[in-house]
């Protein structure tokens, strides 16, 4: 990758063959690219008058078009003419300046704008994003894989497959005897993708069966693979505080790396009961949007990992603040990285992971090959870690030509009911 070729007295410089005046930079246009290479992605592309553009991920699984509308009808028109280098001021313009603040849709739009602006900043300064936010705190990023099995034997087998691939940390989800569907388990042995075409499908859930089964799963996995491997589990918001306290307590002997979302994220005080009864570490926040969602959890040290994703939690600008807040309380990061976060998000998270001192682990659910036809990426997996190269900015590009071959198709996350029909958390 070519660097700055020459710098002139007036502050302008030549990068590649484009002359950039560093004293003036304006956003001239922005567009939203929606595509479906196997699943829907929404990508924001912001253009400047200096020929540099930036990309941000605006995907909100199952709610894609709401974010597109927010960007196209409300935020993009207000962006035109602003100086893209003013990431802090622009963040506050769309967050603090907006009377109707917070919420998943608005914050996904704010996040996409912020990511794209940091991408521009890095490209303009010809340096990878991590150099702008503290530089490298490590050489590589520890990641965890997903292993989902329809039953105990398959879950054990899938865990072994992840270890074979080089992962040293594995999140294990398993079909529960007596429950037809459970979170994180694919019906057809393909990789798990919760959003299904069309309107939400209804699934059924039974917490007592789940609570009886999960400790047996981790007992078995520890017997087979020993103590060295990091084990994780996602409760996916499905327990009450007392149920979660029982589960965390019964999992204590198997020394999990974490349990995730043991109770719904909005029930912050619920975590107090879990802490009284267990030392299994806790990760929360993939559905959070702002630092305010974390106040009680962090200041009372009720959790061990913050999971709010770069694409839903206000982008780089806000995630750095959340991570700093968490760090003061010895809480680490473990950012969300499911397949509904596009390669732009994954790369942006990796830059933050590289730079933070209180990085913990990164979720890594590789995208299917067809996604790499649309996105040109700058990260690679090797022996349990992701490595990111030194491409300037976030370092991911999109091929609009390939994206156009995969048009948007409505897909929704499931809705859950208890076995008697009562509506429940998914
Ligand atoms: O869109 C919903 C998914 O991102 C979520 O269900 C994935 O819980 C998840 C995880 O931990 O990856
Ligand atoms: Mg989760």
Distance N to C terminus: 45 Å
Into how many domains do the coordinates divide? Answer: 2
- Judging from the principal axes of the Cα atoms, what is the shape? globular
CATH architecture heading of the largest domain: Alpha-Beta Barrel
Strand content: 15-25%
Structural class: alpha/beta
**Proportion in helices:** 25-40%
Spans of at least 5 consecutive residues whose pLDDT stays below 50 are: 1-5
Radius of gyration, rounded?
A: 22 Å
Number of helices: 13
Corresponding CATH superfamily of the largest domain? Enolase-like C-terminal domain
How many E strands?
23
Largest sheet: 10 strands, mixed
**Main CATH class of the largest domain:** Alpha Beta
Bound ligand species: 2-keto-3-deoxygluconate, magnesium ion
Which fold name corresponds to the CATH topology of the largest domain? Answer: TIM Barrel
Features of this protein?
globular, three-stranded antiparallel beta sheet, single chain, 13 helices, alpha/beta, binds magnesium ion, Enolase-like, domain 1, 426 residues
Please provide a written account of the structure.
The protein is of the alpha/beta class. Helix content is 33%, strand content 22%. It folds into two domains: 3-128, 2-Layer Sandwich (Enolase-like, domain 1); 132-392, TIM Barrel, CATH 3.20.20.120. It contains 13 helices and 23 strands. The strands form six sheets. Strands 7, 8, 11, 12, 13, 14, 15, 16, 18 and 19 form a ten-stranded mixed beta sheet that branches. The longest helix is centred in the N-terminal third of the chain and has 22 residues, at 104-125. The chain is globular. The structure holds 2-keto-3-deoxygluconate and magnesium ion (MG). The site of magnesium ion (MG) has 5 residues, from loops.
